[in-house]
Design brief:
The protein is about 85% helix and about 0% strand. The protein has helices spanning about 1-10, 10-30, 35-65, 75-90, 95-100, 110, 115-125, 125-150, 155-160, 165-175, 180-185, 195-299. The protein folds into 2 domains: about 1-110, Up-down Bundle (Four Helix Bundle (Hemerythrin (Met), subunit A)), CATH 1.20.120; about 125-240, Orthogonal Bundle (Helix Hairpins). The chain is flat, with a radius of gyration of 42 Å. By secondary structure, the chain is an all-alpha fold.
């Protein structure tokens, strides 16, 4: 029974079915944001929502039954369990905040679709390198905010009047949101302010943020290399297993050929022995007859 459930859960058609359920559930949750759709199809949307949740719960129970203790060692199983538990809590709860958490079920696509799993694994692998870049970016933002507060606090108090305000304004500048108007407002009183803003954007946007991309790309390359190595190991193991099977088949064929040769040799040897015995008896008979004739002649 366990092997049948394992085969069902791993079957490609079942995986496609789960992906379809997730997408349908996401569509129904989106339709619930339209009052007209809720008024007209509210009961149907609720039934589909609960049915999808029960399907997810049944899938998790099946995995728990099949994998047993190994279930908790897979981080993706823990992730799916948390998503389903939150969905049950949001279904039973009356708070709007809990009900809004039902959309988290769409995140199950991350664990079902292999390509999305690889992307998330690469991002998690890149976290240590990204943390160092975050520290560097924080230092640059802090130094620039202190300088901007000292230099332009009196000129533009709404944007650089205090350290928190300067941090927010520079973060907005780093993202490229309306930074031209911010710079022009300051440059009206300080014409040389363009040097500060140009240097800040060059360092933060074109250097530090690109480091994020470099770390993520490097992590994805490592993930792809490990996946290729795993596939090559599987292929090598399958090749070794095929070679062993072929060697065993060759040995079996050799044994069968030897047995056939023995079976063919035994009747031939038996026939030869029988013919030899028959010829010996005939020779003895001839000798006896010859002796009898010689004796009769002497008489």
């Amino acid at each position: 029974m366990r092997e049948r459930i394992r085969a069902l859960l791993a079957h490609p058609y079942f995986q496609r079915f789960i992906i379809g359920v997730i997408l349908i559930n996401a569509a129904t949750l989106g339709l619930e944001t339209f009052p007209a759709a809720v008024e007209r199809y509210g009961t149907l949307l609720t039934v589909v929502d609960h049915l999808a949740l029960y399907i997810f719960a049944a899938e998790l129970l099946g995995k728990l039954y099949v994998e047993r203790t190994a279930f908790a060692r897979d981080p993706w199983n823990i992730f799916d369990t948390l998503i389903v538990c939150i969905a049950f809590a949001s279904t039973n709860g009356g708070l709007s905040v809990l009900r809004s958490l039902r959309i988290l079920r769409v995140l199950r696509l991350l664990s079902v679709v292999p390509s999305l799993r690889r992307v998330v694994s690469a991002l998690l692998r890149a976290m240590p390198g990204m943390s160092s870049i975050v520290v560097l970016l924080s230092l640059v933002l802090y130094v620039a905010a202190v300088m901007a507060t000292k230099l332009y606090g009196e000129t533009a108090p709404d944007r650089f009047g205090s350290l928190p305000t300067s941090l927010f304004t520079l973060y907005q500048t780093m993202t490229g949101d309306d930074w031209g108007n911010i710079a022009r407002e300051v440059m009206a009183e300080h014409p040389s302010a363009w040097i500060f803003f140009a240097s800040f954007i060059l360092v933060c946007t074109f250097v530090v943020l690109n480091l994020f991309l470099a770390v993520v790309v490097s992590a994805m390359d490592e993930e792809s290399a490990e996946e290729r190595a795993a596939h090559e190991q599987d292929a090598a193991a399958q090749t070794r297993q095929t070679d062993r099977i072929l060697a065993e088949l060759a040995a079996l064929r050799k044994e069968v050929a030897e047995l056939r040769a023995l079976q063919t040799a035994v009747p031939v040897a038996a026939g030869a022995a029988h013919n030899g015995a028959k010829n010996g008896a005939k020779a003895r008979g001839n000798g006896h007859n010859g002796g009898a004739r010689a004796k009769k002649g002497r008489r």
